[in-house]
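Sanity check. The docking grid for zinc ion depends on where the pocket ends up, so I'm generating a full predicted complex first rather than guessing from homology. Inputs follow.
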Amino acid sequence: MISKEPENFIVPATKKCSKCGIEKPLTEFYRNKGSKDKTASHCKTCLKAYTQSEKGKAYQKAYNQTEKRKAYRKTYDQSEKRKAYKKAYSHTEKHRAYQRTYLKTYNQSEERKAYRKANRKAYYQTYKQSERYQALRKTYKPSEEQKARNKAYRQSEKCKAYINAYRHSEKFKAYNKAYSQGEKFKASQKAYCQSEKGKAWLAAYKKSGKCKASQKAYQQSEKGKAKYEAYKQSDKYKAYQKAYNQTEKRKAYQKAYNQTEKWKAYQKAYQKAYQKTYRQSDKGKALIQTEKNKAYQKAYEHSEKRKAYKKVYRQSDKMKAYAKAYNLSRRVKPADKESNAE
Ligand SMILES: [Zn+2]
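Predicted complex below; grid placement will be based on this.
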């Protein structure tokens, strides 16, 4: 029987392995605080063979899944000792070399590629807002090689297709709309319109068929019509009309128009209609009844002008046609009476 008293406990220099049965020095055994002699019962060689065997691996795996083991690992991972170890280890060249190798393999894995593809946009957005990127941008100077590459890309079909697709995207439209309403854009537009280049462009554009077609389409649109109606009511338009009516161009046009048959016909018709309306109005009727008008009518009836008119009228085709029709009606009348008498 072995005494529990330390002073009476004799530590043997060698030990027999309970697996292989070989007598080995104690340095060939791992320490085990739980056992009586503080060393494992199996030698290092046997233990290594066991942990690498299928049975040993299965046992270890099952053991790691136990709640006891999980709790232990958790406590251990959070211990100061473990943290200090991790920190120290992360600075070792061994760890760095391992990381480099691992990352190289990992970055080329299908899993990683798929992840990058799925998260590229989000990652790039985040990256662009990072201080690191902003700092890099300020100091970034592309090499000649990079410049050449960029130029080649801009001229490539791929780039053109991309730009084309972007210009038709909703995103671009929204951006454009917001931009065109901004102060920055308005200021730049104003500056361009006042520049020689801008003026030349506008002059060329106004002469182009594109401009005329676009104007025509606008004038015929509901929006264009409404705007024109509103414009006609404005003081600006009235002032413009007034000024225009006094121009030589307008006067010449008016003069030419006054001599057209169209205008004369219109005038004649208008006067006739106006006189008719006037004669039927109370004012017109009153005028006809005045002594002055009666005297004028009487004098007119006996005037040479009136006699000449009557003479011409009696010989006119209109009068002859009227007389013929009148005489015919008189001849027909007796016959009608006879037929009625029967
Ligand atoms: Zn052994």
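Relevant for the grid: Residues 77 and 291 are 131 Å apart (CA to CA).
Also worth noting: The chain is about 75% helix and 0% strand.
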